[in-house]
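Raw record, unedited: Class I SAM-dependent methyltransferase
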Amino acid sequence: MSEVVRNYYENNAEYEWERLNNPYSKVEFLSTIRLFEKYLPVTGHVCDVGSGPGRYSTWLLKQGYKVTLFEISQKELDIAASRILELGLQAEAYICDNATNMHVLSDETYDAVLVMGPLYHILDDCDRSKIIRDTSRILKKGGVAIFAYINSWGALKAGVTEFSEEFRDLNHLNKYLGELKLDENQGFTECYFSTPVKALEEITQGGFEIVSYAGTESFLAGMRPEITRLYKEDRIVYDHLLQVASESSELPQYRDATEHLHIVARKK
């Protein structure tokens, strides 16, 4: 992961804490928490690789897990440490480093590992494979990992309402049917967009068996403007939609066409 990515998160540290509070991204947060509740071990030590400002680490600490935060941005880690301290909680460790440098983490240490961010930005196939193999290495046998990808199929759907002007170029539109590797001038920073087929193959080749996968926006994918409107105008409908969407994020009719793809895998 490059300095371009590090600088982006250093400059947007507070935004990353608030992002999961916005009306549309809230479904991503709730769907992810449901995956934690369903698939993570009841107790144990979790390594949150790409922890950002600690939104998920904080939730895990509240549930009694021991948590190590591993993050490329020191500012993000500082926000996480401050929030965790305010809540009277304590993380096991805060490590500021690139996800491609996970060699600093010991073998077979963690009961679960979250990799929910780094793979969004790794353009090199070998580097992504290294992160996945290192995740397997630091997990205990039978441990669970959750890997997050940006899904190009879901981004295509979202683009209709969020950045349709890009689709004046038919060739660019067609690129969303496969992998996309964008530099900082093409994406919000350096970005890697995968497809469910490719992402599942990468995880399997990294020494994992697939347990399940989810599209975290579920049937609400690509509906940011409408969901934001409902949040403001009809909170009952909004709350009901969030509940059902988060509960149905693993259903095959939804999960392949959402912006965020979460893969639950177990170390063989």
